[in-house]
Design a protein that fits this description.
Layout (H helix, E strand, L loop, with lengths): L1 H6 L13 H22 L2 H6 L8 H6 L1
Keywords: Membrane, Transmembrane, Transmembrane helix, Transport
Membrane topology: Multi-pass membrane protein
Family: Belongs to the MIP/aquaporin (TC 1.A.8) family.
């Protein structure tokens, strides 16, 4: 395993067989959007003023995303 790490310059990430790099890029974009949208919606100050009991639960959806 150390041989692969050293010969590849510290990483060996690749797209699984049967998927293109474009498909992997699309999945990364969608996953990043879901995470950022969840963080922004869970920490929205207008929402916190309206639902004062919710901020304690904000880490839960962020963790699931």
């Amino acid at each position: 395993m150390k041989h692969y790490y050293n010969s590849l310059g510290g990483g060996a990430n690749e797209v699984a067989a049967g998927y293109s790099k474009g498909t992997a890029l699309g999945a990364e974009i969608i996953g990043t959007f879901v995470l950022v949208y969840t963080v922004f919606s869970a920490t929205d100050p207008k929402r916190n003023a309206r639902d004062s009991h919710i901020p304690v639960l904000a880490p839960l959806p962020i963790g699931f995303a």
